[in-house]
Specification:
This protein has helices spanning 16-32, 47-59, 78-84, 96-104, 112-123, 143-152, 167-171, 217-220, 234-253; strands at 6-12, 35-41, 65-68, 132-136, 156-160, 176-179, 197-200, 204-205, 211-212, 226-227. It is an alpha/beta fold. The protein has 2 domains: 6-94 and 236-253, 3-Layer(aba) Sandwich (Rossmann fold); 124-228, NAD(P)-binding Rossmann-like Domain (Rossmann fold, 3-Layer(aba) Sandwich), CATH 3.40.50.720. The longest helix is centred in the C-terminal third of the chain and has 20 residues, at 234-253.
Length: 264
């Protein structure tokens, strides 16, 4: 069909972690043949100037997906910027329209990490339907959307967080435990039911500067049926789903309809 999907990544400032994330996205796009363009902007840019950049990207036909790398400088309101991204180019799935479509289980572009989590769960070969899933974390980026995706897959979902009373007991009832609370090695083996599937979304540094998750991997792996490592677990899937969303957006933007989503 001669269609090359195009992704624009907007990077504001010189945050080292953000620069690393953007480079990994660039590399992934190059490897699969997606056109990638990074718009680097100074930290001093005003909110209005940034909104004008987004508007220009909205108009460009060769750009199918727009991603604004977060966090943004404190003088810029993140949600205002996200809301300016055209819904059909919102490959992060953060605009209110796409979040509403997720809630209603309609066709749309949904957050990448939750999509990756669902794919990982499917790869275990175990059915999600009928399972009790406990999601620890209530962010708009991971906790809430993955809870909705699990519901749409017919799991029974309990949402919990750091202030949930009896968290350990609730977690131990989970067939599927998704942890996204931002506390290094908080979830030990006594939070996990033997044989449970454990998805660790956390990214933290321990006292030695080593990258670790929210789950005590070495202890929990002894009793879990499946467990994702950190690094090398959910992270690569997030980028994979970004590529998938970009391809999906390109197909929709060019009015190419396949049977359902490209993930089947």
């Amino acid at each position: 069909m001669g269609i090359t999907p195009g992704l624009a990544v907007v990077l504001v400032g010189e945050n080292p972690a953000s620069i690393t994330y953007v480079r990994s996205k660039e590399k992934a796009c190059h490897e699969v043949g997606i056109y990638s363009e990074v718009i680097r902007l100074p930290e001093t840019i005003t909110e209005e100037e940034l909104l004008q950049v987004i508007e220009e990207l909205n108009r460009r036909e060769e750009i199918d997906g727009i991603l604004v790398q977060l966090p943004l400088p404190s003088h810029i309101r993140e949600q205002v910027v996200i809301n300016r991204i055209a819904v059909e180019k919102d490959v992060d799935g953060f605009t209110p329209v796409n979040q509403g479509k997720l809630l209603l289980n309609e066709k749309g572009l949904f957050p990448c990490t939750p999509l990756g989590i669902i794919d990982l769960l499917k790869e275990t070969g175990q059915s999600i339907a009928g399972k009790h899933a406990v999601v620890i974390g209530r962010s708009n980026i991971v906790g809430k959307p993955v809870s909705l995706l699990l519901l749409h897959q017919h799991a029974t979902v309990t949402m919990a967080h750091s202030r949930t009373a009896g968290l350990k007991q609730i977690a131990r009832e989970a067939d599927i435990l998704v942890v996204a609370m931002g506390q290094a090695k908080k979830i030990t083996s006594d939070y996990v039911k033997p044989g449970a599937i454990v998805i660790d979304v956390g990214i933290n540094r321990d006292e030695n500067g080593k990258l670790v998750g929210d789950v005590d991997f070495e202890a929990v792996r002894e009793i879990a049926g499946f467990i994702t490592p950190v690094p090398g677990g959910v992270g690569p899937m997030t980028i994979t789903m970004l590529l998938q969303n970009t391809l999906q957006a390109s197909l929709w933007n060019h009015h190419v309809e396949l049977a359902g989503r490209i993930d089947g």
